[in-house]
Records
---
Amino acid sequence: MKESEVFYVGIQTPAEIRKDILMSAKSTITSLKRYEQFRILRDEKLSQIVQLKKVLDELASLNRKFRSALPKTGVRPEFPAKKEEPERVIRKEVARKPEAPKRTKMDVLEEELAKIESRLSSLE
């Protein structure tokens, strides 16, 4: 497009349009923030799974070592029949590490969201 072909369009309600644009930017940033939380949670889950696999492998190797250290006998132990009551699982709360002070994507998104909300409040 040549410079001589530039034309302008009149906007009937610029404040409303600006408000709508800021609202859509706010919802986009909120969605990005939720996605970032999901991604962090997924990474934590994967690291916990890897840690669990390591522990299970270590338990299996220790069990093999233990069984090899036991004397060889021809007698098999009899186990009592299992009860029908399900065991209760006790959950322990894991203390989370304090987050590093470096800026993450989440912090940047929160700052942008705060800026947009302040601009939105100034329009109203």
---
Amino acid sequence: MKKKSGFFIKPFVAMLALIALAGLLFASCGSGAGSGTRTIKYEVTGSPSTTAVIVYYNESGSPITLPNETIPWSKTVDLQSGVVAIGFGWTITSSSGTYTGKIYVNGKEEKSATTNIGNLTVTF
């Protein structure tokens, strides 16, 4: 039986790259404090019941990795004061197709991308 050795490695490497990119974004934001209350909604839509690796930034700006989430997926967080940037990334692991990721800030769509491996960031 032939193994699919690259099946897991490619998405894993892509997610590591997304985490590194997001880390650079946060490091370059300086020490300015975000002002006001911000409700963030992260969303990935596409073929139902497929799975994805998802990395998003929580209320305090810390990265959270979800290794096996079912699409469609969404998460809403209320940012703590002082968070100056947010972002998330996704890698579809179980199927091909068209997938769209979106970030909403206070109910308004700020960014979107349609791809199997993507990331989005918003700075304040």
